[in-house]
Amino acid sequence: MKKILVMLSSYCGENYIQEQIDSILCQSGVEVCLIVRDDGSHDKTCAIVKKIQDQDERVQLIQGDNIGFRRSFFEMVRSASIKYDYYAFSD
Q: Which residues partner with 6 through β-bridges?
């Protein structure tokens, strides 16, 4: 089975983050891992992702300062492991 790392940059997405993560994690036919780098949200986004992370080891949360989505994705790419077959971006 192919392994995919999905890199999601979030910012104040409490209304949509649960549904987005559920959609990513329910993919079939592949092994999915998810890194969520939060870009300084001031809503409940991080709390929602932390709850998911506590229940699913495939999810990793990185909390950061607001650096914008481009730099946020770049930070995730720089830190990504090379053990995956494919890499995907989600915003």
A: 34, 88
The rounded Cα 43 to chain-centroid distance in angstroms is 17
pTM of the model: 0.92
pLDDT tens sequence across 31-60: 999 999 999 999 999 999 999 999 999 999
Contacts of 50 (CB under 8 A, 6+ apart): 61
Give the distance, in angstroms, between the CA of residue 36 and the centroid of all CA atoms in the same chain.
Answer: 2
Going by their DSSP bridges, the two strands 2-10 and 30-39 should be labelled as: parallel
Q: Name the strand (E) or helix (H) holding 71.
A: helix 69-79
Q: According to the model, what pLDDT value does residue 63 have? A: 96
